[in-house]
């Protein structure tokens, strides 16, 4: 019985010492608000402009179709009482044709834009990750956390978002 008690006491002491050493293992901790860094980068605004320019013609085409559909819908509502059956049928056929064409162009265009935005977002997030890794190694951080994943921070000085933004902003 005494040996069991001694074994439990030794195990408790060892367990406590291991927990306390694990708790103090991370000496230098930093926080990065990745979302804020991403949104404040000049590369993000440049990419948005590039994507807008890349899809400008297709977006204008879809916007023109939207105006045409709206015009013909208003015309149908406004002139329906004075239109002949043939004119109503022709206008309805035109509207169906325009809607089909709009659907055929708008959805794939939106998917293409989202795909390109995702590609560019991933490139920028990769740059942010590289900058965090580089900064952490240079400044000898033991742990860097995403600031959005932390509920409470006593010391706001551990936020390194500004330094990461500066570092990534210099990359072309």
Concise overview:
The protein is mainly α and 172 residues long.
Describe this entry's structure for a reader.
This protein is mostly helical. 76% of the residues lie in helices and 5% in strands. The protein contains six helices and two strands, in the order αβααααβα. The chain has a two-stranded parallel sheet with strand order 1-2. Helix 2 (34-40) runs parallel beside helix 6 (161-169) and helix 4 packs antiparallel against helix 5. It is elongated, with a radius of gyration of 30 Å.
Distance between the termini: 71 Å
Q: Strand sequence of the main sheet, in spatial order?
A: 1-2
The largest pleated sheet is described as: 2 strands, parallel
Strand content: under 5%
- What is the helix tally? 6
Apparent shape: elongated
What integer value in Å does the Rg equal? 30 Å
Mean pLDDT: 85
- Which sequence of SSEs, written as H and E, runs from N to C? HEHHHHEH
Find the structural class using helix and strand composition: mainly alpha
The low-confidence parts are 4-14, 16-22
Number of strands: 2
Q: Give the helix level as a range of percent.
A: over 70%
């Amino acid at each position: 019985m005494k040996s069991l008690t001694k074994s439990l006491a030794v195990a408790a002491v060892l367990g406590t010492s291991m927990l306390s050493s694990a708790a103090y293992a991370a000496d230098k901790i930093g926080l990065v608000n990745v979302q804020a860094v991403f949104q404040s980068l000049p590369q993000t605004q440049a990419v948005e402009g590039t994507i807008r320019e890349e899809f400008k013609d297709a977006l204008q085409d879809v916007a023109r179709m939207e105006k045409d559909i709206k015009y013909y819908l208003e015309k149908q509502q406004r002139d329906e009482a004075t239109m002949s059956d043939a004119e109503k049928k022709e206008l309805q056929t035109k509207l169906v044709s325009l809607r089909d064409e709009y659907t055929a162009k708008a959805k794939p265009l939106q998917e293409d834009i989202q795909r390109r935005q995702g590609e560019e977002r991933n490139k920028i997030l990769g740059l942010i990750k590289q900058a965090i890794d580089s900064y952490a190694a240079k400044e000898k951080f033991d742990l860097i956390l995403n600031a959005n994943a932390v509920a409470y921070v006593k010391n706001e000085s551990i936020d390194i978002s500004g330094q990461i933004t500066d570092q990534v902003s210099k990359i072309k």
